């Protein structure tokens, strides 16, 4: 139970009347020297401004040296912004000044950012700098990889794994499909729908083109413009190369390095194969499966044909139209020739130069041979192996019909 002294602090007592004081009638009211219309009791003014009661804390302004015991006066000081800015915090990277260190720190973070010690990357966030160093500057053996439990994929950052799980291995009830308003297709991501709209349904006049500042090229996607700038306008010394850790190959783009590792260095058991629903074909890369489906299984009326402006030919793939234009219709002085460094040969296509170099100038010890599974033959090019394999396997298989059912039986042909 509270004592009487403890309960008095909760009891609001009425102040004594002015008649209680003998000198109350002789006290003159206090007149404000700033405004003539404001006046108050001199006792109130004296108590608020000249007494220093020990039980009241001193209120100090953080922006200047102003102090007071009165909350009302302190509040008025803050609202009227009467601070005398005696301390100035100056940025050491630009001429801006700030009244306090908090604003200076905020300015430094968002305007000047945190710099990477190995490149020109800048960010206001420390975690983004850490992620940047892991992605750009650490080698594969220095990275603590995060593995997917459902496939062979691995990632440098956990957020990439979460994104991969969300879009590649979602539960059926977690998928929210986004339908296209102009065709029956639907997509998991808004970004995929946007790309589809630009590629399939928007007219050229409706597209927001990304134009190159160094030439007349323009692109539908910002990433394509970036890749064009790297491929066409940057010097080799300015390019950030992506080097393979297992051979001497290097690439201008990260996705090219990933493609190379899967194609050249991954074991069959490590590859995530993409199986065609219409046939037995399977591919190492999802884009190859899409290309296969478009070229082999789409009906004539479902195909988006690429027509030549100079003749009646049409193509299912844009790259085939481009090859046709270079090979048939482009004048020789407009062709970008690929010249061999070992001889005087020149070619219209880079792949033709690579085949020429491998066929004519590469040592046998440097060649990655393609071996036949059915005979001792070996080939420099995979296309030759595939062509030979169909012939060789056909000779070793004999089709026998049993009870109206076709069965393939391996038989040795002398």
From TrEMBL:
Q: Which InterPro entries match?
A: Znf_C2H2_sf (IPR036236), Znf_C2H2_type (IPR013087)
Please provide, alphabetically and separated by semicolons, the GO molecular function terms listed in this UniProt record. zinc ion binding
The C2H2-type domain covers which part of the protein?
A: 21-54, 89-112, 146-174, 210-238, 242-266, 274-302, 306-334, 338-366
Specify the domain of life of the species encoding this protein. Eukaryota
Q: Key word Repeat present in the record? A: yes
Q: Note whether Metal-binding occurs among the keywords.
A: yes
PROSITE patterns, A to Z: ZINC_FINGER_C2H2_1, ZINC_FINGER_C2H2_2
Q: Which Gene3D superfamilies match?
A: Classic Zinc Finger
Q: Which UniProt keywords apply?
A: Metal-binding, Repeat, Zinc, Zinc-finger
Q: What is the name of this protein?
A: C2H2-type domain-containing protein
Organism (species): Zophobas morio
